[in-house]
Amino acid sequence: MPPVLWTESYRIGHTAIDHHHRELVECLVAVQTAIDVQASMAEILGRFDFWLDAFACHAQIEERLMDRLTLPPGSAHREIHCAEHGDFLHEAMALRTRMKTGHCPSSIIENLGLSLIGFDLIRRDFEMIGHLLHEGQLEIG
């Protein structure tokens, strides 16, 4: 399957977060490519671990931003968004465990990428930016 690719339509308007999102997508492409070319398991896991670390750091940055949210809708969003970060990391860790057994078609990484894009990059992060703007906790530009 072709890798999940970054497009500018994924941008949410926050320069640092957009940069992180692009890097996260590119790191997943590197994992998927390593699987497709049948690289060593050490290389595949190394690339996946690099992506996992990058995602964990990215989630922490977003969660620090969301700590600024104090109004009920923003607070509710923060709770849901942070829980989804945790769920996504647990899913990724389970996938890593599965990868160690040698069973990991690149389509599994593609599905992880689609989940990342569909929920974190697009839906939740656009909502996060909206809440931050609404509460005056983020300036445009």
UniProtKB/TrEMBL annotation:
SUPFAM superfamilies: Hemerythrin-like. Residues 15-103 form the Hemerythrin-like domain. The keyword Metal-binding applies. Keywords: Iron, Metal-binding. One of its GO terms (molecular function) is metal ion binding. It comes from the Bacteria. Belongs to the hemerythrin family. This is Hemerythrin.
